[in-house]
Predict the structure.
Amino acid sequence: MDQKHDHANQILSLLENQESINSLQVAQTIGINHQELVGYLLQLEAANYIITEGLKKDQLFLNEEGNTILNSQSGEYEIYQKVPEGGISMTDLQKQFGIDQPPKQKQEQGEKKEKQVEDPKKKLFDQGFGNAKKMGYIKLDKGMISKVANDMPDKIKQELQSFNEIKLGSPQAKLLIERKLASISTIKYFEVKKGVKYNSKFREQFAALTTEQLLSGEWKDCDYKSINLNAEGEKISMGNLHPLLKVRKQFSQILIGMGFEEMPTNQFVESSFWNFDALFQPQKHPARDAHDTFFCSDPELSEEVDNTLRDKVKAMHQTGGVGSIGYQYEWSHEEARKNILRTHTTAVSSKMLYRIAQQYKEKGYFPKKYFSIDKVFRNETLDATHLAEFHQIEGVVIDKNASLGQLMGIIREFFRQIGINKLWFKPTYNPYTEPSMEIYGYHPVLKKKVEIGNSGVFRPEMLAPLGIPEDVNVIAWGLGLERPTMIYYDIRDIRTMVGPEVKVETVRSNAFCVFESK
Ligand code: PHE
């Protein structure tokens, strides 16, 4: 049995026939210091063998000088002993203590007084002499010092010898404190009582049940540590969603909640046809310039689209239809086949609309709500708010009754759910929508209106070639994912969200995105 067990058992046996014990006494009885005992007490308490109650009290402590006197004698008593029967002069008495000349006070020339050099022997003597008089050992009469009585005891030493019995507040205690031989300080200790698992013998507590203990049956006699249900588990290292993905997920949830279905977006490379031509965007439009769009070199051209579709789109651009005169230019088949990195998710929507129109041929008309969230690319100069690749969120409603009012209502509801309820609409121009509206929201940090999206009613010139019946309207809106993410996670520079600038630690520590709807 190790020492720890010995001490634990000693403590427990002290408690065996007693209601409670005092840790100060226990430390004395066992013969260890109180600090060490407290360690054992805490362990025993953790194992429910005991319960402790913290207490404190003021106690008288012997100072160093008090200890010195206890081991020899007091200064006044030393003086008393050196005074002979017939008395002695001050000078002679001082000589007995090795003090030859009482130091004279020297006065220096000038203003400065030289500090009197204090002789430690003299200081001690003066102190002892004063006390000897006060305690009634000696008297001073006409320059002669004599004993008051013979065979007096060293009273202070006697007090110190019974120091442990001196009560706080007693005249003895006051005397010792006044003489700076003792002082009062507060000590902390414990009252110890039996705990729910009290046993006079300490049994080892196992942290876990082992196979061996089970097989041997030893477990029946073992004590086990209780499980700390409040302990924190070890941090698990696992994957975490990037802030953009956290916000993206939340946007999907909202749109799904509003009855939208997700469109397949898994195609970064798109033909100019779906990204521009099918959207009634003229081939000379500046957005189709290499300054704004990334063109692919290999393969440079995409596969052919359905010829009928292609010819319908071509005719709409060149000569128009559905009440429009088109753009009146020579449409290039090759230009439409150029592969690009899609510049907006509306490329996904145009393709989807064509697919829906195909289905209408078989099944007839049905309304539909779609959304997409994915990456798009633009040949931008990078700065704190612009990247060459970013994400767009797009919603599309295909419905005979779809109107501008419905579009505004859906947009309001969508933004309400991400916590933006102050919206402004401003007319704008898109080649593929008419009317078109920019969406502005109130930026809580910048405290001003900022553009947060774009929207509109798809033009008949776009819908007719795709095969959408004339009486079916399509309304749509789009917005970026980066800006709301930056606001939500307080990200100041967009460039820290992609590539090597991304801090894994930040990604780990960012909370889930849950928008507060207004
Ligand atoms: N495609 C537009 C953009 O990139 C957004 C938009 C989507 C506008 C749908 C109208 C309708 O800004």
Observations:
- The radius of gyration is 48 Å.
- DSSP finds 19 helices and 17 strands in the chain.
